[in-house]
Design goal:
It contains four helices and 22 strands. It has 401 residues and is mainly beta. Strand 7 and strand 8 form a beta hairpin. Mean pLDDT is 79; it is low at 1-25 and 265-275.
Length: 401
């Protein structure tokens, strides 16, 4: 049975940009010295944060280096999805991303190739010199060099957003020492996803990382239905290779982009590609313990994606700043949700600014009917001493994609 186009949501995560430049001093430091906890030890949220920071540091040290880097993902799902032209993305496929990191630690060239397990190309996109050219769909859009992330499809950032049960254990993966992080996110409200007869009550994700390098090796994602049944929906295997020289056929794609007349700012519909535009936004001014605050959310539409943004701001540092819960969603005209994600309390301590964001890609999460409604909802969180404030800010918009 086709499970619809929804559950790739659990592979593509919410992006973040923080870099941690020193090894953590708590649980992860003990692991680094082989002072491992008992297998299956349940860790609190602060311990999980410590382990994630340590893994991020190792990735930064090992992979944020000048030169070319190849990230190869093999994704196996129990559902298909669609490219913008209606081409079916099969249940299982391979993604190869060639990153070029320059001397200022920015990715200034990126070649994204998606293909079937037997090597048939599905899509090729080449990004360099301020433009991204989709060779498959004959489109060109703007490109801005960006800071490298953790080459893990957002997994490490996603783990820290789970506010429920976490376990960490050391394992052997062949000749590698590995760290397995298991997370369970119990949804605050059961959600009806397209392709499932029952509502989903929890998302369970098991992620395995190479301990010495920090590299993500595998992710297995399951959902728990209302009757307690658990179904595996996505399995991703990942390999990262740095200090690599791309073969000629990869480098030729850069030259082909520069020489192609197709690499002009026209879309597959023959019109000029519109720059992203802000569809809707809202800000609420309030205060906590006499300190002024501003809570903001926005929805921005692009040619191939919709972007959600949330911001909590105070004029000076306070005890806690963030949100008590945050939901972003895409709802089709028939009432189904190809994309829905809700997060529990997430905040910074002793800070005056908190931001988070997420993108919904039309090709990954399509609707068969229009109009489509996007939502960006939730309560912000401000705590100063014994005083608390949780202003609600909701933004939604209707679009045809």
């Amino acid at each position: 049975m086709n499970k619809g186009n929804v559950l790739s949501i659990f592979v593509r995560g919410i992006a973040a940009v923080a870099l941690f430049l020193s090894l953590a001093t708590g649980v992860f430091a003990k692991l680094d010295k082989n002072e491992q906890p008992k297998l299956g030890t349940v860790l609190g949220s602060s311990d999980i944060t410590d382990v994630v920071k340590g893994l991020k540091t190792k990735i930064h040290q090992n992979y944020h280096v000048q030169g070319w880097l190849l990230v190869r993902e093999e994704i196996r799902r129990n559902h298909t999805s669609l490219f913008p032209n209606g081409t079916i993305v099969p249940e299982s496929y391979i993604v190869e991303n060639w990153y070029h990191i320059n001397g200022t630690n920015s990715v200034d060239k990126l070649i994204d190739i998606r293909k079937t397990l037997d090597g048939q190309q599905l899509q090729v996109t080449v990004s360099s010199k301020n433009t991204s050219w989709n060779k498959t769909f004959k489109e060109t859009m703007g490109f801005t060099p960006f800071d490298p992330d953790y080459f893990d499809n957002g997994t490490l950032n996603r783990i820290t957003k789970y506010n429920n049960k976490h376990t960490v254990e050391l394992q052997k993966q062949g000749d590698r020492q590995a760290v397995k992080i298991s997370t369970t996110e119990n949804l605050l409200t059961p959600v009806k996803f397209e392709g499932f007869d029952q509502t989903v009550t929890a998302v369970i994700e098991e992620s395995i990382f190479d301990f010495s390098s920090g590299q993500l090796l595998t992710v297995n994602t399951r959902v728990r239905l209302e009757d307690g049944t658990e179904l595996q929906v996505v399995q991703m295997t990942l390999e990262v290779t740095n200090k690599i020289v791309p073969p000629d056929d990869i480098l030729d794609l850069l030259a082909e982009k520069e020489n192609s007349k197709e690499a002009s700012r026209t879309s597959r519909f023959g019109k000029v590609l519109a720059a992203p535009f802000l569809n809707n936004s809202k800000s609420v001014n309030s205060s906590v313990a006499g300190i002024s605050t501003t809570s903001s959310k926005s929805i921005t539409q692009g040619e191939t994606w919709t972007h959600m943004f949330v911001s909590s701001y105070a004029v000076q540092s306070i005890s806690q700043i963030g949100y008590s819960w945050w939901t972003i969603e895409k709802k089709c005209a028939n009432g189904t949700y190809p994309f829905w994600r809700q997060y529990g309390a997430t905040y910074y301590t002793n800070a005056n600014n908190f931001q988070n964001n997420g993108s919904i890609y039309y090709s990954e999460y399509p609707c068969g009917t229009t109009p489509v409604t996007y939502g960006n909802y939730g309560n912000h969180q401000y705590v100063q001493g014994s005083t608390q404030d949780y202003p609600r800010v909701d933004v939604n918009d209707t679009y045809n994609r």
